[in-house]
Design goal:
Layout: E1 2-11, E2 14-24, E3 29-34, H1 40-48, E4 55-60, E5 63-64, H2 70-76, E6 78-81, H3 93-100, H4 107-120, H5 122-126, H6 137-149, E7 155-159, H7 167-182, E8 186-191, H8 194-200, E9 203-208, E10 211-217, H9 218-223, H10 225-231
Parallel strand pairs: 3-8, 3-9, 6-7, 7-8
Antiparallel strand pairs: 1-2, 1-4, 4-5, 9-10
Helix pairs in contact: 3-6
The structure holds adenosine-5'-triphosphate.
The site of adenosine-5'-triphosphate has 13 residues, from strand 2 and helix 1.
Length: 234
């Protein structure tokens, strides 16, 4: 579904990614784990066209996307849930969800998707007229995921969905991510919470200093001595 071929990405003169390559097959949950500043967010930003790679290529469903604008990339079906949620705090829950469907005009289908997200997160249905900024951290994460789903993504990019949330809420969010995947959406999950991420992923990549240093099945990474020491605290 997605293939990144040896990309290098920069912020001005600072190089953040070095020859990063990875593949995501349809239907998979792929996780990218790594420490602070490893380059995980930059990888997502490069896929989305916000930090386009200076060299290398990115293909989505066989077509090059590394030269497209972020809007065109969203229209192709790649939607990001950014780190820190970035919901619209002064808009209601319902208005935030409407914004997710901004590029669509299939009203009946939008209505169905609204029912789908309210079914996934009943609390959002209860709070649909509440301002986004007054929701709890966990609810805001649910809203950010739901807003992305309203764009009906083929590939959903999640940047640290567990950041700053209580263990019980993290458990709930990870269960929902699996549910979304089982309903047919491919998922690319960037996480510092390596243990939880590897538990739900099919395959994983490990990033250090802007480079992919390991790639394997998630079960294999969970028992890999290097990963256990560096990322699982074992
Ligand atoms: P975290 O888990 O802390 O979010 P990360 O793995 O997502 O980290 P990135 O945010 O991709 O890492 O950062 C990779 C490198 O790029 C870091 O050295 C960071 O300082 C640098 N960087 C990120 N954003 C910018 C920016 N806007 N301007 C300059 N350098 C940046």
């Amino acid at each position: 579904m997605l293939e990144i071929r040896s990309i290098c990405s920069f912020y001005g003169k600072i190089q953040a990614l070095y020859d990063v390559s990875l593949k995501i097959e349809p239907g998979e949950i792929i996780t990218l784990i790594g420490a602070n500043g490893a380059g995980k967010t930059t990888t997502l930003m490069s896929i989305c066209g916000i930090v386009p790679p200076r060299t290398g290529e990115i293909f989505f469903e066989g077509e090059p996307i590394h030269n497209l604008t972020p809007e065109k990339i969203v229209a192709k079906g790649i939607v990001q849930v950014p780190e820190g949620r970035l919901i619209f705090p002064r808009m209601t829950v319902l208005e935030n969800l409407d914004m997710g469907a901004y590029l669509r005009n299939d009203k009946e289908e939008i209505k169905k998707d609204l029912e789908y997200v309210f079914d996934l997160f009943p609390i959002l249905a209860e709070r649909q007229d509440q301002l986004g900024g007054t929701l709890s951290g966990g609810e805001q994460q649910m809203l950010a995921i739901s807003r992305a789903l309203m764009a009906r993504p083929k590939l959903l990019l999640l940047d640290e969905p567990s950041l700053g949330l209580a263990p019980l809420v993290i458990k709930q969010i990870f269960e929902i991510i699996q549910k979304i995947n089982q309903a047919g959406t491919t998922i690319f999950l960037v996480e510092q919470n390596a243990h939880q991420a590897l538990k739900i992923a099919h395959r994983g990549y490990v990033m250090e200093n802007g480079r992919i240093v390991l790639a394997d099945k998630a079960e294999a990474l969970l028992t890999n001595e290097q990963v256990k020491k560096a990322y699982l605290g074992l």
